[in-house]
Every structure is written in structure tokens, then in C-alpha cells.
């Protein structure tokens, strides 16, 4: 009995094993059949590209008997695989450029066979037909290149469903119709639509983020987008004079009238508006004259010799030459009573604290030129009244105040920063201590304050005037290229000098009174003494100025007190490191950034994630990298500097602690030393 039970049990086990083996075989057969169907779909796609010519398709080298990818190794020519990341050898790129293909694009077959496709490049063939709407089935596409073919028809609106699309090149075809408006909602950075037959208006693209944009030689009409300033006439020319709005294009006509009565009503309304404008202008002038007379009468008793040191805010329309362009007073001081103004005027000569008695660090380390000597001499005799009475020119306005060029008696030119008080105004004594400590720390790459004034919520900081432009103007075309060649060595030099200056200031101002210029600093920001560290607070390209020898110099160090959320010294110093990382991105990409640089950082991160790192770098810098040197080695050093920038910015996502400025300066200087050695060996 027991023997029969054993036999029955063994039979059941064998049946289960046989069933499992059958399932495995069926799965293997199904998988093999699925792979065969994918290969057949791809071969069919290629055959249609070749116009049905199987011999020509076979000449490309795609073999239906073998898999197109072996892990991350490409087997079929022109096919890119991403097995290292996906683990299954999926097709991520198809590049069939200039193969003499003259058929049509079967997007449905392609997307069904390669759903992970990111790059499709069919440039330089003779393809006909249209760009199928089924292309949206390849949902992961980031780059589409179909330029220089014979494609026609309209661009499919379904392109707007490709939410990852960055580059779209449809140039030199015969496309017609309107450019789909919803393309402006994508994150495109390049659009090449030139040399087609597009009509209608240009969609509302956000052109400020584009690297390249061209719709030349079409039949487009209407206004050119307002933010197209970075793109010249060549990007829009050849549209039969249908485009308007730019300086080198005809002005845009007013909207068409709906009838004679409408035209009369508009003319009547314009006349009424003009009359009201003249009346309001006259009333404003009269009120201004009355205000000036009353203000002069109130101030006359409180000045020295019948004149006051206070000066009112003036409009840019006032005729220059007298006190109309004197340094304007803040709104708080304008609203002060006459008695308070008189008290301040009497106290101001002793309130201006002079910090520097002989030229700036930048001047003494390099060459004490005539302008620097004049500024040093002017600093010794500087009085608050001189600043208020001297002619002033507005240099710029920012989040934290305004900057002026002031020519004091004797002809010396100074730069004056008026600091805007944030909510919860900083104590005067705290501002005074901070500026005195910053004035004691000297480094050739940091512009020290000459003097400062702090009273009645009015804060002024005086510097030597450096009139050779800023890094922002140099990068973005406001300085003539003949002054300095901003090639790769020059950018690396600027990055190194700024890092040295910031690292020195972070070390010298970590604690105490900052008198020891060689004070070292710890490797962790968490070891700050309470209230000891002083950060820059507003490091950006416009605050990197140039000396007469075009050496970079950091300005406005410590002028801005960090806002309450960043009031801890550690957080303020980390913010400086992040700001330096954004500065490196500007140097490497050549792109301007606004506010905290978050948008530029996101763009760089997205491009790197797509493994198109070379597209990050400024083309002008790349073209100069290999002039007389090793291009590959220079580009490798660019990538290393980009990695330093990302370490400075991505402190939250990195498992390691964020670097200090000393560590950042060490990494940047190592790259620069290697670059210098490379140049020396080539010489």
C-alpha cells in the first residue's frame, strides 16, 4: 500500500516538473517570436525609407537574423543602444544620415519597434511625404533631425505631445502651413525651421532660453517675438517682408479698423488722451516747481553758509551740470522733517568712516595708476557733504540697492553703493562692525571699501571706481572683444582668481576682528563662531569687475546682510559657494542667468542627464580651446570644471557634505595648473 502511494507521489512530481519545463519553453519561444517581430518591423521601416528597394535597404547592413543590440554594444550600423542603463539592450538612437534614402517615414512601425527611442536623425537624404502624426508614439524622443530632405505637408500638432523634446530640425524641406502653436509649450532649446514654406505667425516661443532659432526663408507674417534679441536678422530674413517689429524690419502696422466709425472713435479717443496727458504733464511740472521752492525754503536755515548737505531725488530728465545729478537721497530721508535733516547735516562730517588711507589692494599689488592714486588721495579727505554735492551717474540698480559713479572735488572718480534696507533693518552698529572687518581683510582679487556711512537708515559704501566693465558685460557682449579675448584659458584664469579671493575672505573673516590676513579656516561650515563669519551675500557676474590690466576683482563683499532664513553664518557661506557654482556655469555656457541661477542650473542638469554634455559649453570657448593645443585635453578640463560647478550647486542631492570655498579653490587651481603645464609643454 505504501509502495503504491510512493509511486503516485513520484508521478505527480514528474508531472509538475514537466509542466514547468513546458512553460519555460513556451516563454522562450514567445520571447524569441517577439524579438523576431521587432526586427521585422525595423527592417520594414528601413525598406520604406529606401522607397521599397530591398537591395538598397539590405546595403545599410541591418540583418534580421541577429539582434540590433547586444547589451550596450551596437550590432546594426546606425543604431544606438543603451543596455548599460536599461539592462535590456533597448534601441535609443537611429542615425541614418546621407544614405540616399528616398522613401517615406513609417513612424507607427518605428515607434512600435523602438519605444525607448530618444534620437532620430534622417538628415541629408531625399525623403518625401510628410512627418507622420504617429511620431508622437515615440514618447521619449528628445532630438529629431529630418532637415535637408524633400518632406512636405504640415508639421503634425501631435509633436506637442513629445514632452521631452529639446531639438527639432525640419530645415531645408517643403513643409507648409502654420508652425504648431503648442510647440512653444515644450522645453525646446533648438528649432531649425528655415528654408520651408511655413506661413502664419511665429508661435510665442520663449526665445531667451534657446541656443539656436531660425525661421528664415519662409512665408511668415506678423511681429517678431520681443525676446528675440539674441538672434540676428539672419534668423528671420527672407520672409517676403512679412515679419515686422525689429529695428532692421518694417514697423508693425496697427490692427485693422472695423469701420469708419471705429476709426473716428479711435482718433477722438487719441486726441482726448493727448490733451489729458498735456494737462497732467503741466500739473506735474507745476507741482514739482512748487515742491522744490518749498523744500529750498525749509532747508535754507540748516545748512553751512545757507546751503544744506541734503539733496533730493532727481529725475533723469533734468538738465545735467549742477546738483541735479548729485547722489540722490533715500525715500526715508526725503520724508524726514526739516529739523531732522538739519541735525543729520550737522552730524555728517564725522559720520563718514574712512577705512583706507592708501590705494586699494588691487591697486597696490599691481600698479598704482593715476586713477587709483587720485582715489586714495580723495579717500583721505573725503567728507559726506562732498559725496552729496558731487555730480553722480547711475551705474545700475539691483535687488540690494543702486550703484553710482561720483566725481568728487579734485576730479577723482569713486563708486558709491547705496544699500537698500531689507525688512527689519539691520542695526547701524552691526553694519559698522562688518564693514570695518571687511576693510581690514586685503586680497588682490577683492575690491576693499574706502569708506562707509551709516545713519538714519541710510547706508553708503565707497569704493575706487573701476571703469573697465564687469564679467557680465564681458560675457554677454557689452564690452568690445578687442579689449580681451575670453577664450578658455582666460575663463579658467577668472574662475581661479575669483575662487582664491572668495576662499581668502571666507578664511580671514570666520571669527574675531578679521585683522589677521592669513587666518586659516576649518573644512566644515558647522564650526563657525557665533556671528563671526562674514559672507559676500551677493556674488554674481556683474559684481566681478576688471582692473586696468583686466584682472578680475570681486566687488561689494559683505555689503549685503543675509536675509533672516540665511542669517546663520554657515548658511550664508554655503550660499556663497552655490553662487560661485552659478558663476562657473555662466563662464562655461556663456549664458546669462537671473536671480539665483536656478533656471540655468536646471538646463545644464537636463542636458547632462541626456548625455549631451558637449552642448553645455559656449561655442566661442570650444573653438578657442584647441587653438595651438590639445583640444581633447582642454575639453576634459572643461568637463572637470563643470563637475566642480555642479558640486557647488547640488549640495542637497549629494551624499557628501558641500565643499567649502577653500576646497573649491583647490579643485579649480589644480585644473588651472594642469592647463598651464599643458600650454608650457606645447610652447
From TrEMBL:
UniProt keyword annotation of Repeat present: yes
Record membrane topology: Single-pass membrane protein
SUPFAM superfamilies in UniProt: L domain-like, Protein kinase-like (PK-like)
Segments for region (Disordered): 243-266, 299-325
Subcellular location: Cell membrane
Any one annotated GO CC term: plasma membrane
Binding-site positions, ATP: 417
An annotated Gene Ontology molecular function: protein kinase activity
Biased composition (Low complexity): 308-319
Transmembrane segments: 271-292
First and last residue of the signal peptide: 1-30
Domain Protein kinase, residue spans: 389-683
UniProt keyword annotations, A-Z: ATP-binding, Leucine-rich repeat, Membrane, Nucleotide-binding, Repeat, Signal, Transmembrane, Transmembrane helix
Sequence ranges of Pro residues compositional bias: 248-257
This protein's name: Protein kinase domain-containing protein
Taxonomic classification: Eukaryota, Viridiplantae, Streptophyta, Embryophyta, Tracheophyta
Amino acid at each position: 500500500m505504501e509502495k503504491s502511494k510512493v509511486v503516485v507521489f513520484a508521478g505527480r512530481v514528474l508531472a509538475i516538473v514537466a509542466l514547468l519545463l513546458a512553460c519555460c519553453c513556451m516563454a522562450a519561444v514567445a520571447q524569441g517570436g517577439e524579438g523576431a517581430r521587432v526586427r521585422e518591423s525595423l527592417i520594414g521601416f528601413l525598406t520604406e525609407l529606401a522607397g521599397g528597394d530591398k537591395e538598397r535597404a539590405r546595403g545599410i547592413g541591418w540583418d534580421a537574423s541577429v539582434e540590433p543590440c547586444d547589451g550596450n554594444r551596437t550590432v546594426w550600423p546606425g543604431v544606438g543602444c543603451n543596455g548599460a542603463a536599461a539592462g535590456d539592450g533597448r534601441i535609443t538612437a537611429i542615425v541614418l544620415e546621407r544614405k540616399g534614402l528616398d522613401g517615406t517615414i513609417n513612424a507607427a512601425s518605428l515607434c512600435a519597434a523602438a519605444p525607448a527611442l530618444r534620437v532620430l536623425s534622417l538628415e541629408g537624404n531625399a525623403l518625401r511625404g510628410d512627418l507622420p502624426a504617429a511620431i508622437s508614439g515615440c514618447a521619449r524622443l528628445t532630438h529629431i533631425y529630418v532637415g535637408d530632405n524633400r518632406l512636405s505637408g504640415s508639421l503634425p500638432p501631435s509633436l506637442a505631445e513629445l514632452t521631452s523634446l529639446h531639438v527639432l530640425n525640419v530645415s531645408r524641406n517643403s513643409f507648409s502651413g502654420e508652425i504648431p502653436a503648442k510647440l512653444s509649450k515644450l522645453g525646446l532649446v533648438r528649432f531649425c525651421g528655415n528654408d520651408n514654406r511655413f506661413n502664419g505667425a511665429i508661435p510665442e516661443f520663449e526665445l531667451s532660453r534657446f541656443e539656436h532659432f531660425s525661421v528664415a526663408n519662409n512665408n511668415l507674417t506678423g511681429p517678431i517675438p520681443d525676446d528675440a534679441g539674441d538672434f540676428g536678422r539672419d534668423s528671420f530674413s527672407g520672409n517676403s517682408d512679412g515679419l515686422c517689429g525689429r529695428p532692421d524690419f518694417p514697423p508693425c502696422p496697427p490692427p485693422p479698423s472695423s469701420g469708419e466709425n471705429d476709426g473716428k472713435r479711435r482718433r477722438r479717443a487719441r486726441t482726448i488722451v493727448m490733451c489729458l496727458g498735456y494737462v497732467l504733464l503741466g500739473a506735474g511740472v507745476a507741482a514739482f516747481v512748487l515742491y522744490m521752492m518749498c523744500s529750498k525754503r525749509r532747508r535754507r536755515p540748516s545748512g553751512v553758509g545757507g546751503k544744506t548737505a541734503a539733496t533730493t531725488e532727481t529725475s533723469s530728465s533734468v538738465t545735467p551740470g549742477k546738483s541735479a545729478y548729485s547722489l540722490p537721497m533715500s525715500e526715508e530721508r526725503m520724508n524726514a522733517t526739516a529739523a531732522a535733516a538739519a541735525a543729520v547735516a550737522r552730524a555728517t562730517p564725522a559720520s563718514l568712516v574712512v577705512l583706507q588711507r592708501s590705494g586699494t589692494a588691487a591697486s597696490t599689488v599691481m600698479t598704482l595708476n593715476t586713477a587709483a592714486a587720485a582715489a586714495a588721495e580723495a579717500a583721505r579727505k573725503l567728507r559726506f557733504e562732498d559725496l552729496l554735492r558731487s555730480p553722480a551717474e547711475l551705474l545700475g540698480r539691483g535687488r540690494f540697492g543702486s550703484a553710482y559713479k561720483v566725481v568728487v572735488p579734485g576730479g577723482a572718480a569713486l563708486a558709491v553703493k547705496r544699500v537698500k534696507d531689507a525688512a527689519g533693518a539691520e542695526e547701524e552698529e552691526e553694519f559698522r562692525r562688518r564693514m570695518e572687518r571687511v576693510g581690514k581683510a586685503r586680497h588682490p582679487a577683492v575690491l576693499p571699501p574706502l569708506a562707509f556711512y551709516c545713519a538714519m537708515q541710510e547706508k553708503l559704501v565707497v569704493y575706487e571706481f573701476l571703469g573697465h566693465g564687469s564679467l557680465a558685460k564681458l560675457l554677454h557682449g557689452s564690452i568690445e572683444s578687442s579689449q580681451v579675448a575670453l577664450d578658455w584659458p582666460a575663463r579658467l584664469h577668472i574662475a581661479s582668481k575669483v575662487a582664491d579671493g572668495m576662499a581668502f575672505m571666507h578664511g580671514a573673516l570666520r571669527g574675531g576682528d578679521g585683522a589677521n590676513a592669513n587666518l586659516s579656516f576649518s573644512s566644515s561650515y558647522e564650526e563657525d563662531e557665533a556671528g563671526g563669519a562674514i559672507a559676500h551675500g551677493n556674488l554674481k557676474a556683474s559684481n566681478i569687475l576688471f582692473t586696468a590690466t583686466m584682472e578680475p576683482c570681486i566687488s561689494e563683499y559683505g555689503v549685503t546682510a543675509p536675509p533672516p532664513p540665511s542669517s546663520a553664518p554657515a548658511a550664508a557661506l554655503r550660499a556663497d559657494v552655490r553662487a560661485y557654482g552659478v558663476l562657473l556655469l555662466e563662464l562655461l555656457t556663456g549664458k546669462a542667468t537671473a536671480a539665483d541661477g536656478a533656471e540655468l542650473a536646471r538646463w545644464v542638469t537636463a542636458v547632462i542627464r541626456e548625455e549631451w554634455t558637449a552642448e553645455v559649453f559656449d561655442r566661442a570657448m570650444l573653438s578657442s580651446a584647441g587653438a595651438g593645443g590639445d583640444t581633447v585635453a582642454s575639453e576634459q578640463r572643461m568637463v572637470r570644471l563643470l563637475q566642480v560647478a555642479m558640486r557647488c550647486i547640488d549640495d542637497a542631492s549629494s551624499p557628501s557634505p558641500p565643499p567649502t570655498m577653500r576646497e573649491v579653490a583647490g579643485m579649480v587651481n589644480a585644473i588651472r595648473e594642469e592647463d598651464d603645464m599643458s600650454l608650457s609643454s606645447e610652447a
